[in-house]
Amino acid sequence: MDIQKLMDSLKGCPCGRKHETNIKAVEIGSGMLEKTADILRENGFPQKILVVADQNTLKAADGILDVLQQGGFQWELKLYEDLREANIVEVRALQELSKSVEGILSVGTGSLNDICRMAALHADKQFAIFATAPSMDGFASDTSPIIENKFKSTRPARQPGIIIADTRILAAAPNELKVAGFGDMIAKYVGIVDWKVSHLVTGEYYCENVANVTRTALKRIVSMADRVTQKDEETAGAIMEALVLTGLAMKLADSIRPASGTEHIISHFWEIKKLEQGLLSDFHGKKVGVATLCTTKIYKELAAKKNIVFVPEKLDWDEIYRAYGPNFTEDVKKLNSPTVTTETTPEIVEKHWEEICRIVEEELPSYEEMLALMKRTGAATTFADISVDEELGRLGVRFHPYMRHRMTLMRLIPMMRFERTADELLGE
Ligand SMILES: [Zn+2]
Ligand SMILES: [Zn+2]
Q1: Whole-angstrom Cα distance, residue 424 to residue 428?
Q2: 257-425 to CATH, choices 1.20.1330, 1.10.3470, 1.10.12, 1.20.1090
Q3: How far is the CA of 66 from the centre of ligand 2 (A)?
Q4: Nearest to 4 by CA among 19, 24, 18, 31
Q5: For residue 305, what pLDDT band results from cuts at 50, 70 and 90?
Q6: pLDDT tens, 97-106?
Q7: 232 CA → ligand 2 middle, Å
Q8: Which ligand has an atom closest to residue 283 CA?
Q9: CA–centroid distance, residue 200 to ligand 1 (Å)
Q10: Any idea where the domains of the chain sit in the sequence?
Q11: Measured CA angle at 10 (ends 6, 13), to 5 deg
Q12: Could you tell me the pLDDT band of residue 258, with boundaries at 50, 70 and 90?
């Protein structure tokens, strides 16, 4: 993948921001496992490294330790049993472990990468990823969603300098993981809508060229919907590239906006509420896909409504705190002091409403199209598919905006006078 070409095309971007990346190399192809040591060395990765994996990912990348050894790398291994959540406790443990090395190589995806990424920043170590499944888009990002005290938030982290993926391994990844990657990608439709809406009503930074990096990757993935679950190296490689590109877009914009909108927050709400009960959630991209479907339905309904009256929001904070429960009330209070709509008056929203409706129209496929697209890949489409009960599902759809200080179209609903709440707009 030619990162340099992309970076060159963004030189002198009209948005006024200097787009930068730490990524030196993205090598996706057949047989990359055997070349791992060479790729790392050629890109200046240090020889003393901590390899972080779990039993599943190490098995998928079978032989990688030998390849490193033969390539002259001195590695220490931190092997988890089956790491399914990125907890701050693990970040700190990795920070400690990495004291004796100069670089961290994460072998895996998702939570494994997330803890390594943040540990690499805090311990100030070089960071590389050997990806084992195209399951989410965080590979190239410089933030990590991390759980602390059962609350999940997005933290600064280190973007990897090198990303390697062997398409033989990607193609052989479990279908569930590949479909999750697809779910994480179609969320970008909503992400771009929310980004543009926030740009309009809050003046938040927006770059059309970076948004286009996401749109291009999204288009590519959507065109492959029928082939996602095939054990085809070319498709798996192309999906991986698209996932890396959207992660990179976050770094280019210095914001999660190009890859994540209100649907990601909904998914995080479900996740923390389940975690509170000691329950593990389904894969990130799987939940995000379902949340994308819910959001699409609501946004399309909103944009089709006639004669919405815009009024100052009157939030029942006690009701909101109750929805989160005592464990999260303090976090929610902090994130809403002041709340993100403080400077967004109903007049501002009304002034831009026509434009907002146009954005929803242009950027977001219809609910039916989105549903059909997801069904073609075999993706999860209902609360039941992701083991979220109806009550929790709807609670998340209605109350998620308050767990972030981030403007989304969903967060503006309390300023619109009509008789239905967000979860009612979702329908039966
Ligand atoms: Zn720009
Ligand atoms: Zn995601």
Answers
A1: 8
A2: 1.20.1090
A3: 32
A4: 24
A5: confident
A6: 999 999 999 9
A7: 23
A8: 2
A9: 17
A10: 3-173, 257-425
A11: 170
A12: very high
Ligand closest to 291 (CA) is: 2
> Three-state secondary structure along 292-361?
HHHHHHHHHHHHHCCCCEECCCCCCHHHHHHHHCHHHHHHHHHHCCCCCCCCCCHHHHHHHHHHHHHHHH
Written as six digits, the tokens of 419 are: 């008789």
- 276 residue type, one letter: E
pTM for the full predicted model: 0.89
* H/E element, 164: strand 162-166
C-alpha span between 321 and 345 (Å, rounded): 23
Q: What is the pLDDT of residue 362?
A: 97
Q: What is the pLDDT of residue 341?
A: 96
The CATH classification of domain 3-173, taken from the options 3.20.20.110, 3.40.50.720, 3.40.50.300, 3.40.50.1970 = 3.40.50.1970
